[in-house]
Amino acid sequence: MIVRELMKKSEKELEELSLDPHAAKVLFYHFAKKEPHELYLMMDEEVDENLYHLFMVALDRYKQGEPVQYIKGVENFFGRDFVVNEHVLIPRYETEELVEQILYRIDDYFAESNEIDVCDIGTGSGAIAISLKCEEPRIDMKASDISVEAIEVAQKNADRLDAKVTFYVGDMVKPFIEHQDKVDILVSNPPYIPVEQKIELVVKDHEPHVALFGGKDGLYFYRRIFEDAPAILKDKAILAFEIGYDQKEQLSLEVEHYFPGYPYEIIKDMNGKDRMLFIYKNIK
Predict the structure, then answer these.
(1) Residue 207 gets which letter from DSSP?
(2) Helix, strand, coil: what percent of the chain each, to 5?
(3) Which pLDDT does position 89 carry in this prediction?
(4) Closest CA to 203 of 191, 185, 217, 215
(5) Can you tell me the distance from the alpha carbon of 76 to that of 95, in angstroms, rounded to the nearest whole number?
(6) What is the tens place of the pLDDT at every residue in 139-190?
(7) Which CATH architecture has domain 87-281?
């Protein structure tokens, strides 16, 4: 069978199952070790037997509901490929904007600093922590996760991308308190989906629930971080969070309760949704 015939047949099968037909090409060029544009140059070539087997196994996994990213074993984030598996949340493109906004604020508020201490709470695959370290060498990055398996994935990503990050296994802010760390920037993309909120089955059935659900109203982990964060913040510091698009009003009340008088802002993403929260300690 030539590539064109295999793609046409596979895309039709996915369409009949109400799945994304584009996934066929994504999986094929991944296992063929080709760039997307190279796929079109090989459309009339015969499919290698070993490649055919790898592709068909991958296609079947996708038909069974497994995310493409887990099948490939990697996901691109901020221009780099990160190893992902069932132990970590798949990095989302919305979170790239959080990284970008943090880098802007480093330029604005820490331009004169030779070293910037940053912690990432609930690091998962390490996508945020590693991207920040790779983009800004002045950062001394530490990151935590309660999942041993997640930290193993994050460490693998740091090693692959040559990023020096110190990882702690521990619950939220606690490991940073225990190590007596003090930070200029605290960043977190905590679980923020309310436990009873309906989400896509492909997410619910495959991605780690510990990284998805944030209690009854989705704010449980924000409150925990807000409560413990003062113990690790320097005199001048920034707290940066990804948030649920519909949590602006509730989170504003929580910020005003835990950080009275602190300036803060909620920033929209490229789709016009409220997605990022920044809190400023002694920064104007």
Answers:
(1) S
(2) 45, 20, 35
(3) 85
(4) 191
(5) 12
(6) 999 999 999 999 999 999 999 999 999 999 999 999 999 999 999 999 999 8
(7) 3-Layer(aba) Sandwich (3.40)
Characterise 283 by phi-psi region: left (phi > 0), alpha (psi -120 to 50), beta (else): beta
Quick one: which H or E segment has residue 265?
strand 264-268
Render pLDDT for 101-131 as a digit per residue (tens, 0 to 9): 999 999 999 999 999 999 999 999 999 999 9
Which spans in the chain are helix H? 3-16, 22-31, 36-39, 49-63, 68-72, 93-109, 127-135, 148-160, 174-178, 201-204, 220-228, 248-258
So where are the chain's domains?
A: 3-64, 87-281
Angle at 152 between CA 214 and CA 58, to 5 degrees: 85
46-60 average pLDDT score: 95
Q: How far apart, in whole angstroms, are the C-alpha atoms of residue 33 and residue 46?
A: 16
CA-to-CA dists, residue 216 to 84, 89, 102, 226, angstroms: 28, 20, 29, 17
How far is the C-alpha of 75 from the C-alpha of 77, rounded, in Å?
6
pLDDT of residue 35: 87
Which helix (H) or strand (E) segment holds residue 219: the answer is none
Instruction: Say which residue the tokens 């079109």 belong to.
Output: 40
Q: How confident is the model at residue 205 (pLDDT cuts 50, 70, 90)?
A: very low
pTM for this prediction: 0.87
Query: 172 — alpha (psi -120 to 50), left (phi > 0) or beta?
Result: left
Answer for the pair 221, 130: CB distance below 8 angstroms, yes or no: no
Pairing state between β 116-121 and 183-188: parallel
